[in-house]
């Protein structure tokens, strides 16, 4: 009280904060109070119901008290159990007036992530953890014009080097040829061929490819414990390139029909001069009698 006036100052209780209106009520010389218009609302985290969908997209609800645009800063850090030296870090910013928000990130497979979102107006942060699963590898290669199938294998960025291999299959064409790209593998990522005529001619750890490496079918060398035997003259073959990634009990693979050899002629080149193929085939069925017709056309 002072100078014949009385003043009351209002404050929101703990857990609430003032939002609009006057926090002062004055009783003047007339003896009437001018009422305070203060409104108290519950304090809520600016980022609520944070979740990760499809192992890459963040969803959250924005708790805002005004219609103003909010700026969010998103940071993520990833690590891998089987690769101690691996770290994946990234930052994103998003400005929006919306109440329901979504932001998709480029998260890598088989990685443990910690993701934080900060609302810059309040500097409050919400954090969530997520684990991404194994995905089918991509086959990267470059092909050359040679008398026998030759290509240059290439590593892709951020590949799963330590848990991935390339496998080269030779399938002699005898009627109908069945090849299951999703066939399970044993320890060391090797495969058992159902038919004695089919065989793996090479298995190459992706980590050993470095930037790139050349590989020719039938060069008489050993690759991953498999003998790259020369092709027999006068026989027809399919050459299949398979990429396999395996972590614990989960396996993912993708295949490309790389080449078709008729007799001693390399008659079909599946790729263009530079190709990146990822074909998740459950079963690749090759009709040998039909495929080896005029000009080596596709089945």
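^ structure tokens above, recovered residues below v
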């Amino acid at each position: 009280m002072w100078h014949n006036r009385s003043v009351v100052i209002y404050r929101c209780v703990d857990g609430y904060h003032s939002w609009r209106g006057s926090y002062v009520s004055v009783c003047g010389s007339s003896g009437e109070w001018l009422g305070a218009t203060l409104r108290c609302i519950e304090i809520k985290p600016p980022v609520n119901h944070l979740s990760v969908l499809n192992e890459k997209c963040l969803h959250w609800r924005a708790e805002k008290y005004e219609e103003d645009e909010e700026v969010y800063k998103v940071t993520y850090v990833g690590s891998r159990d089987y690769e101690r030296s691996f770290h994946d870090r990234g930052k994103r910013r998003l400005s929006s007036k919306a109440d329901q928000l979504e932001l998709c990130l480029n998260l890598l497979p088989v990685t443990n992530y910690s993701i934080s979102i900060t609302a810059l107006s309040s500097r409050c942060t919400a954090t969530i953890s997520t684990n991404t699963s194994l995905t089918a590898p991509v086959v990267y290669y470059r092909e050359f014009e040679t008398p026998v199938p030759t290509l240059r294998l290439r590593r892709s960025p951020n590949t799963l080097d330590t848990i991935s291999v390339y496998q080269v299959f030779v399938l002699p064409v005898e009627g109908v040829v069945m090849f299951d790209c999703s066939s399970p593998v044993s320890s060391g990522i090797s495969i058992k061929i159902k038919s004695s005529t089919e065989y793996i001619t090479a298995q190459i750890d992706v980590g050993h490819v470095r930037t790139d490496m050349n590989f020719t079918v039938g060069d008489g060398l050993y690759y991953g414990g498999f003998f790259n035997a020369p092709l027999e003259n006068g026989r027809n073959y399919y050459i299949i390139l398979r990429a396999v990634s395996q972590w614990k009990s989960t396996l993912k693979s993708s295949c490309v029909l790389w080449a078709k050899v008729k007799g001693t002629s390399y008659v079909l080149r599946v790729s263009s001069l530079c190709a990146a193929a990822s074909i998740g085939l459950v079963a690749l069925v090759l009709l040998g009698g039909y495929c080896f017709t005029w000009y080596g056309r596709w089945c």
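The chain has three domains: 6-42, 47-131, 139-296.
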